[in-house]
Amino acid sequence: MKKNTWKTFRFFCFVVIGLTLSLVSGLSMIAQPSAPDDKAVAQEMSIQDYSPRSTLVVNENHRPRAKYPVIDIHSHHRTPLAPDRWKAIVSEMDDLNLQVLVNLSGGSGLKLKEGIAAVRSSQYSNRMVFFANIDFSGGVYPGFGLKASKRLEKDVEFGAVGLKIFKNLGLRVKNSSGMRLSVDDPELDPIWEVCARLGIPVLIHTGEPSEFFEPVDRHNERWLELTLLPRRRVPPEKYPTFDKLMAERDRLFLRHPATTFILAHMGWHANDLARLGTLLDRNPNVYPETGAILYELGRQPRASKMFFVKYQDRILFGKDSYRANEFKFYWRTFETADEYFEYYRDYHAFWRLYGMNLPDGVLRKVYFENALRLLPGIPRSDFTQ
Question: How far apart are CA 221 and CA 349, in angstroms?
Answer without folding.
Answer: 8
